[in-house]
Amino acid sequence: MKDWKSILCSRGLLVLDGAWGTEMIKRGLILGECPELWNLNRPDDVRAIAASYREAGADIILTNTFGGNPFKLKKANVLSKIRQINRRGVELSNEVSGDSLVFASIGPTGEFMEPLGIITEKQMITCFAEQVIAFVEGGADGVIIETMTDLNEAKCAIKAVRENSNLPVAVSMTFSKGRMGFATVMGTGPQQAAIELESSGVDIVGSNCGFGIEDMVGIARIMRSTTSLPLWIKPNAGIPKLKNGKTVYPESPEQMARFIPELIKAGATIIGGCCGTTPRHIQLIAKKCHIYPVR
Predict the structure, then answer these.
(1) What distance in Å separates the CA atoms of residue 132 and residue 159, rounded to the nearest whole number?
(2) Omega into 230 within 30° of 0, i.e. cis?
(3) CA-to-CA distance for 146 and 198, rounded, in angstroms?
(4) Any alpha helices (H) in the chain, and if so which ranges?
(5) Which of 190, 158, 152, 184 is nearest to 171 (CA)?
(6) In sequence order, which residues have a C-beta less than 8 Å from that of residue 276 and are 6 or more positions away?
(7) Are 56 and 97 in contact (CB under 8 A)?
(8) How far, in Å, CA of 19 to CA of 23, rounded?
(9) How do residues 110-144 score in pLDDT, each as one tens digit?
C-alpha cells in the first residue's frame, strides 16, 4: 500500500482521474447494464480507462466499483459475484497504476435508511463491508466514498472501512444549489458536512459531481473554512445538456483548466474531474496543478 500522505506532502497537490461512466458509455455501455460487471466480462476496457488517466497525469486512479454494493448488484442479478467484482475492479486499476495511488470507489446504495426507509444502520454497514473486504484483497491504497448525499449513509461506509481495513478514507459529498445556497438533497450544507465528516475520523473530505468547476470553487471555499483536512474536489465538465438526443457536458478541457488556480486558492489540494471529463481534461488539469504554487 502506497503512502498517500507522504506523496501529498512532497507534491503539495495531487491530481485525480476523470469520469468513468461517460468513458464506459463511449466504449459501448448501454442503459441498464451493470457497469461493474465489466470487471469480469470486459477487463481490457476497464484497464484501458484506468491507464488513460494514469497517462494523462493522474496521481490517484479510482476503480470500477462505484455501484458494487449488494443492493445494486442484487438488482443486476449478480450478487453472488460481489467479492469477485469488487476485488477485480481494484486489481485492474492496480495493473496499470504505475506509481499512482489506487483508491477504491464506493458510491451510494440508492436505498433510504431509517426513518425515511427500512434499511438499518447495521444493514448499511454490513453492505459496505462486503466491498471493503474485497478492496483489501485487491490491494487498494485507499477508499473514496463518493457522490454521497446522506451523511448517515456516508458514516456507515466510514465505519465499514474502519472495521474491516486500515485503509485511508476519503468522503466526497454531492451538493445542489438552491435559494439558501449549497446543500445535499437531504439538506446538509458543505460546512456541516466538513465538520461532521472530520469528527467521524476521515482522512480527506470533499465534493464531486453536481456542478461544473466554477460552482465547485465556492463549495471548496466553504469546506476549507471549517476543516484543515486535505480537500478532494471533482467537478463535472459543466451542467449536462441534451443535444440531438444525447447528453453533452459543455465545459472543454481548456475551460476547466482555467479555473484550477482559483480552485487551489479556495483550498482544494486533490483535484480531478467527474461526469463528462476525459483524459484530456485531466491532462490539462495536471499541467495547471504542476505549475501553480500551493499557498
Answers:
(1) 10
(2) no
(3) 15
(4) 4-11, 21-26, 38-41, 43-56, 70-75, 82-95, 121-138, 151-164, 190-199, 213-224, 253-258, 260-265, 279-291
(5) 158
(6) 19, 22, 236, 237, 238, 240, 248, 249, 251
(7) no
(8) 6
(9) 999 999 999 999 999 999 999 999 999 999 999 99
- The counts of H helices and E strands in the chain are 13, 12
Structural domain boundaries in the chain? 4-291
Q: Residue 198: in which H helix or E strand, if any?
A: helix 190-199
* ∠ CA 20-73-234, rounded to 5°: 25
Q: What sign has the CA pseudo-torsion 115, 116, 120, 126?
A: negative
Helix axes 43-56, 82-95, angle to 10 degrees: 40
- CA–CA distance, 230 with 203 (Å, rounded to integer): 7
Q: Give residue 293's pLDDT band: very low, low, confident or very high (50, 70, 90).
A: low
What the block records as the C-alpha cell of 238 is 459543466
Q: Using a cut of 0.85, tell me whether the model's pTM lies above it.
A: yes
Retrieve residue 188's grid coordinates: 446538509
C-alpha cell at 47: 484497464
C-alpha cell at 136: 483489501
Neighbours of 147 (CB within 10 A): 20
pLDDT digits 0-9 by tens, 78-103: 999 999 999 999 999 999 999 999 99
Amino acid, single-letter form, for residue 250: P
Half-sphere exposure of 100 (CA within 13 A, CB side): 28
Task: Provide the residue type at 180 as one letter.
Answer: M
Would you say the C-alpha torsion 44, 45, 47, 52 has a positive or negative sign? positive
DSSP 228: -
Per-residue DSSP letter, 268: -
Cβ 277 vs Cβ 236: under 8 Å: yes
Residue 60: in which H helix or E strand, if any?
Answer: strand 60-61
Sign of CA dihedral 211, 200, 100, 259: positive
CATH class of the domain defined by 4-291: alpha beta
Query: What residue type is assigned to position 241 of the chain?
Result: K
